[in-house]
Amino acid sequence: MTTDLETLATALYVKIDDFLAGSRRWGRPPRLTDAELLTLAVMQALLGLVSETRWLRFARCHLSAEFPYLPRQSGYNKRLRAANTLISRFIRALGRDTDLWHDDVWIVDSTPVECARSRSTAKRSDLAGWAGYGYCPSHSRFFWGLRLHLVRTPGGLPVAWALASHKADEREVLADMLTGDPDLQATHPGQTIIADKRYVSRHLDAFMAERGLTLLRPTYRNLRPRPGEHLLKPVRQLIESVNDTLKGQLDLERHGARTPAGVLARVGQRILALTTAIWHNRTTNQPITRSLIAYDH
């Protein structure tokens, strides 16, 4: 099968349309369906067109046959912000449709999502109070924004995600992600979760043990090494490579959102694009699971 953006978009549209077939409402249908909206959002992220205005100009010029109706920028932005729940549902639906979903090992980590740079922008942003100033030790830099907490498989497939303040305790965020999604635990009993030293906590260890989960993490240098700790060093590079895909290829930190609903939608858009690429690569038996090269032009 030919692997390119057009093939991926067609497969994605059919998948979403079938997924939503039983939940359509009575009444006049929208001129741009939810399946078309999410397909457009994924194509925008994969092509790296951060500006919605520029993306819609491109779509009108090159995709008018596939999408007979395209809204203006304000309408597209409004629909995308209103689709936050749908984006999350379909990230999960695509993930379930891959063999990677059944992996018995997960990796958890967080990465900064910058939301502003100038002090004046930070002060007038609607994200003020949720977003704030923080420090990223992995990249030795300060930032104003949020942190994306992502649970993924070793193959890079997103399993669960959350946006939280940089002040939020990562251990508490992980616990909330697991308790807030009972279906996730029910379908993955006895899961092993790999984390770094920021997740060191007796309370978290007890929380995991109560739920039959295993937390594999390094210890501080003055403590006795935990079983299997020597296997964690190669994982750090894997974590950084997934973060680099989100930031370097899917422009995670160039989302441009200034409201909570906007940043949730645009971060979700990029996670959906990554999930879609992985799903399509696994479906078409591509040699590299997380490669986006075939879809970025």
Describe the model.
The protein is of the alpha/beta class and 297 residues long. Strand 2 and strand 3 form a beta hairpin. It is globular and about 65 Å long. The chain starts with a helix and ends in a 14-residue tail after the last helix. It is 45% helix and 14% strand. Strands 1, 2, 3, 4, 5 and 6 form a six-stranded mixed sheet that branches. The chain has helices at 5-19, 34-47, 52-62, 73-82, 84-96, 119-124, 170-179, 182-187, 202-210, 233-249, 260-283; strands spanning 105-116, 132-136, 141-152, 158-165, 192-194, 214-216. The protein has a domain at 104-250: Nucleotidyltransferase, domain 5 (2-Layer Sandwich), CATH 3.30.420. The longest helix is centred in the C-terminal third of the chain and has 24 residues, at 260-283.
What structural keywords apply?
single chain; 297 residues; alpha/beta; Nucleotidyltransferase, domain 5; 11 helices; globular
Q: Give the class from helix and strand content and strand pairing.
A: alpha/beta
Overall strand count: 6
CATH architecture designation of the domain at 104-250: 2-Layer Sandwich
Rg, nearest Å: 20 Å
Give the secondary structure arrangement, pairings included.
Blueprint lengths: L4 H15 L14 H14 L4 H11 L10 H10 L1 H13 L8 E12 L2 H6 L7 E5 L4 E12 L5 E8 L4 H10 L2 H6 L4 E3 L7 H9 L3 E3 L16 H17 L10 H24 L14
Parallel strand pairs: 1-5, 5-6
Antiparallel strand pairs: 1-3, 2-3, 3-4
Helix pairs in contact: 1-2, 2-11, 4-11, 5-11
